Amino acid sequence: MGLRNFVDKIKPTFSKGGKLSFLHSTFEGFETFLFVPNTTTKKGAHIRDCNDIKRVMIVVVLALIPALLFGMWNIGYFAGKTGLSAFWFGFLEVLPMIIVSYVVGLSIEFAFAQKRGHEINEGFLVTGLLIPMIMPIGVPLWIVGLSTAFAVIIGKEVFGGTGMNVFNPALLARAFAFFAYTPHMSGEKVWYAVDGVSGATALDYMGQPGATMEGFSACDAFLGTIPGCVGETSTLAILLGAALLLFTGVASWRIMLSVFLGGLAFGYLFDITGWTEYPAYYHLLVGGFAFGAVFMATDPVTSAQTNTGKWIYGFMVGALAVCVRVMNPAYPEGMMLAILFMNALAPLIDYFVVERNVARRKRLIKNVK
Amino acid sequence: MSKNIKLRKGLDIKLVGKAEARLEVAPMAKSYAVSPLDYENVTPKLLVKVGDKVEVGSALFFDKNNPRILFTSPVSGVVSAINRGEKRKLLNVAVEPDQAQQVKEIKVVNPAKAERSEIVEMLLESGLWTRIVERPYGIVANPDATPKAIFVSAFDSAPLAPDYNFVLKEEKANVEAGLALLARLTNGKVHLSARKGAEGYMESIKGVEYRTFEGKHPVGNVGVQIHHIDRIAKGDIVWTVNIQDVAIMGRFVNTGKLDMSKIIAVAGSEAQKPCYKRIISGAAVESIVGKVSESVRIISGDVLTGVTTAADGYIAAQANMITLIPEGNVYELLGWAMPRTHRFSVSRAYFSWLSPGKEYKLDTNLNGGERPFVVTGLYEEYLPMDIYVSYLLKAILVKDLDKMENLGLYEVLPEDLALCEFVDPSKIEMQQIVRDGINLMIKES
Questions:
Q1: How many beta-carbon pairs under 8 angstroms link A with B?
Q2: Chain A contacts of B387, Cβ < 8 Å?
Q3: What does the pLDDT read at residue A366?
């Protein structure tokens, strides 16, 4: 194999003692991307399942594609275009954001891996795509870059990198941009960025007291022909991704289901008590609720890790998101804050679940005596 | 009506090369060896030197931590080599067998009538004591302790594992005698567990607490069975013995002579003719599998928990099978993005789920790089125990003894987490972590 020979030829340059040995992790990152390494099992089980983290991450990226493609078309649609030209228009809007997010994020990841002498972790393949998908259209690219850098450094690397972070890095990027550059992120200014098209999102309506949902039909919200961030508008496209994640078992069905249940339960509660004038299921269709439930809340690293914990965690994410939406007029979108808040609480939930396991074990000792 | 326990969790990995139900007798090997490395936490002190003449049952070395525990020769002959590794660490004592096969005279007592201490002495002197495993920790049993119960699993559920109904076909009287002997060593019960639907003669054995289990691997692991019969709490001591070793003990009592021969399975995709072979414990693997290419890995034991054995090495004392599988030291272009229908995965991110009956020819490739813990909830699906796997492993990694204890380290041995290790996309060396945790516990206690 010609490519393999070439890689083997340049490998010594990047290995210990070679001229470019300081780029060791970077080289290895690219090499393992091209070739599954020839490492064999040394200790423990002699055979291994062929699944690895690269495959897990690539499945998530695939699951994001329907929402991404629809989001691109939707941007064009709201800019007054139709068909392919609408898609092309949106593609040109979103592509720079994706490039900026990947270039900034991956550079930092590579630099940290290099510094630590670690292998490159694949987690950012997902994060790097999530970030542009939850940013409003037309947000300045420097904000995308800055928030990505913040998320990767403060959100992930300071905790020790992939697998160690407390908060979902993509949401942290959005939260950073949201609080540091509020005017660019929400309110009426956002939609001016796209060719003079303006309009508040459905959530802005929902935030107003006594709001009805006239003008946004449930069908529009489900299909996605409503304004919003790139990835979040089409519940249908998101559900396609969810189907892939659930079928492959990459994301937890417990979390996904319980987020929706939590949202429905609290939406219903607000509806019957007269706080809101629209049915509970609207919450699930508009804004970032579905996107958050499927792609953000299910992040295995930052969510609860025990099965019981996942039910509690998911339910509270859904419930909190609806509470923030309804009760706090300052933040029309509650999903981001709900997930971040529950990210912080997840270890506590798990702690109590695991303590019950410990208690069961300690009871054995009493039974013996 | 016998008791049956059904386990839902686990996985049967279907591999090419299952041993045919056909028995061959392996030729006498050029040499046999006893290795302290086959046992955990043994510090060997030699009792022989090169050139010494030994008989079947002659002690070769003992454990300095407990000098009553003797490791004895499986054959008679001459000590041909004392192999040492780095820092003069004893690797094994090799014995070149002679024609006569003299058996050492050991006073055999009748287990039904003798004192418990006499039975213990007899087992210690013959070296058969080393086949009794103590939990927690999976070490050679302490002769001064009395276990709360003894557990014997009558089947092995690991991939390609030998069928003990075939292996022990002719040994019923010996199995019965062995179990009766074990019953004298505990004040509690001797638990015997068979696989539902393949009970063989096990269900007719008297004097034991008999049960059946059904489910997928690791249902045959004695540790998993203990968890569902009578869990190990802090302060408990239980013993376990492999069913074939029970038969060897019974044979010793019944015939009055130590005979370390046993039947093992030779299996795996690279085995020429997968079948069963009668060997003597500790035989050089060459006498069992012949010449093997360098691109083949020889495993003493099964593919999940066995030890890699060199072509000029010896079968591990506890091994009841030898597995031969291809080494996987090759690169695979964009493997992680390919359909990979020739490889197996429990994840539906690949396509093994489309062909549930397919037998796979798996190699030793790690199939990825080691990563931090990322996925959650996966490991627990492959360990039918009330244990949070990643929490236990993390407690071990940070060397927190209290947490290890609280999260269930007393209840597991590395073999119980082998399946979790197999399915892990992060490729974490779980069995080694558990072993390190256990060793730390032993050191600190």
A1: 222
A2: 357
A3: 63
Domains of chain A: 53-360 (1.10.3430)
Residues of A in contact with B430 (CB under 8 A): 44
Strand, helix or coil for residue A3: helix
Cα–Cα dist B74/B250, whole Å: 16
Name the DSSP class of B15: B
* Tens digit of each residue's pLDDT (9 = 90 or more) over B138-163: 999 999 999 999 999 999 999 999 99
> For residue B435, is pLDDT > 60?
yes
What phi and psi values does residue B169 have, to the nearest 5 degrees? -50, -45
Hunting for tokens 């800019």 — which residue is that?
Answer: A79
> Going by DSSP bridges, is the β-strand pair B209-214/B3-6 parallel, antiparallel, or unpaired?
parallel
Beta pairing class for B209-214 and B190-195: parallel
- Collapsing DSSP to helix, strand or coil, A314 comes out as helix
Return the SS3 of B392: helix
Which structure tokens are listed for A41?
Answer: 């099992």
- The string of pLDDT tens digits covering residues A239-277 is 999 999 999 989 999 999 999 999 999 989 988 887 777
Contact flag A248-B306 (C-beta cutoff 8 Å):
no
Instruction: Give the pLDDT score at A314.
Output: 95
C-beta atoms surrounding B379 within 10 Å: 23
Q: What is the rounded distance in angstroms from the CA atom of residue B316 to the CA atom of residue B326?
A: 20
Phi, psi at residue B323, to the nearest 5°?
Answer: -115, 135
Side-chain-side CA neighbours of B335 within 13 Å: the count stands at: 22
- Assign residue A278 a region (left: φ > 0; alpha: ψ between -120 and 50; beta: otherwise): beta
> Beta-strand (E) ranges in B334-387?
none
Out of A54, A164, A361, the one facing B408 most closely (by C-beta) is A361
Q: Are A192 and A198 in contact (CB under 8 A)?
A: yes
A119 touches chain B (CB under 8 A): yes
- Residue type for position B39: Y
Residue whose pair of structure tokens reads 């003079």 in the numeric block: A196
Q: Taking a C-beta distance cutoff of 8 angstroms, is the pair B234, B404 a contact?
A: no
Helices and strands of chain B, counted as H and E runs: 10, 21
Per-chain mean pLDDT for chain A: 83
Q: What is the pLDDT of residue B377?
A: 87
Mean pLDDT of chain B: 93
* B5, burial (CB in 10 Å: exposed 0-12, middle 13-18, buried 19+): middle
In a 3-state reduction of DSSP, which class is residue B206? Answer: coil
Q: Where are the alpha helices (DSSP H) in B184-335?
A: 222-229, 243-255, 285-289
What was the pLDDT predicted at A215?
Answer: 56
Q: What are phi and psi for residue B391, nearest 5 degrees?
A: -70, -40
Peptide bond into B136 cis (omega under 30): yes
Separation between Cα atoms, residue B142 and residue B413, nearest integer Å: 17
Contact A257, A314 (CB under 8 A): yes
User: What ipTM was assigned to the predicted interfaces of this complex?
Assistant: 0.91
Confidence of residue A238 (pLDDT cuts 50, 70, 90): very high
Q: Among residues 23-52 of chain B, which lie with CB inside 8 Å of chain A?
A: none
Domains and their CATH numbers in chain B: 32-98 (2.40.50), 104-258 (3.40.50), 261-340 (3.10.20.600), 378-444 (no CATH)
User: What pLDDT was estimated at residue A193?
Assistant: 36
The predicted-structure confidence for B110-139, as pLDDT tens digits, reads as follows: 988 999 999 999 999 999 999 999 999 999
What does the buried/exposed string (b/e) look like for B237-266 if buried means 16 or more CB atoms within 10 Å of the residue's CB?
bbbbbbbbbbbbbbbbbbeeebbbebbbbb
**Tokens representing B337?**
């993005």
Please check whether residue A31 is in contact with residue A14, taking contact to mean a CB–CB distance below 8 angstroms: no
pLDDT computed for residue A19 by the predictor? 74
Does residue A359 belong to the interface with chain B, where contact is any CB pair within 8 Å? no
When pLDDT is averaged across residues B191-219 and rounded to a whole number, the result is: 94
Nearest to A230 by CA among A188, A258, A252, A201: A201
